[in-house]
Amino acid sequence: MHILVIGASQGTGALAVGTALARGHQVTAFARTPQKLAIEHAQLKKVAGDFHQSASVAATVPGHDAVIITASSFSAFKDNPRYFSQGTGYVIDAMTNAKVKRLVVLSAFGAGESRRLANPLVRLLLIGLVLKAQFEDHDRQEQQVRNSGLDWVIARPTRLTNGPARGRTQKKSALESVPNAISRADVAAFLVEACETATWVGKAVQLGG
Question: pTM of the full predicted structure?
Fold first, then answer.
């Protein structure tokens, strides 16, 4: 497959790039500073672009089979309270125009209807107060994705940790609890899997493990 990873320079996005390459895919790594991505590969193309510039996104999307959105910057919410939803809207428009169907979006456990699964203290203090703006925008982002008409998958990982993939990910599309932490590497593996298979299309998936 030709997979576009948006927000690919570090974190889960960079791990998704590496995972996709290891599985034999051709990958485009899209980021403001793609040179930060410490991967070189014959099947990898690095593109400098802005998730929040429609022309930048529209120029990059055509020719891909799937798009993964991992772009995230909690500090950016001070200037743009629609960081997730604005950029995702540009991606959806570009995919619709280019007839690219598979969209995989990294959201968060506690967004949308999964909020009721969160620990009450986390729900009150973290989701409802400290990260209120971010979770409100994840809600908007998820609704955009559901209404997009694309073959979408929403990933909602619990607390992200560093370290290697454990390969014991619990994946629940029903509103069921999952372990309260998961490695970024395991999340990256799911994001690529969601591009490859129809199993999770049209579903928001809670991830833990």
Answer: 0.96
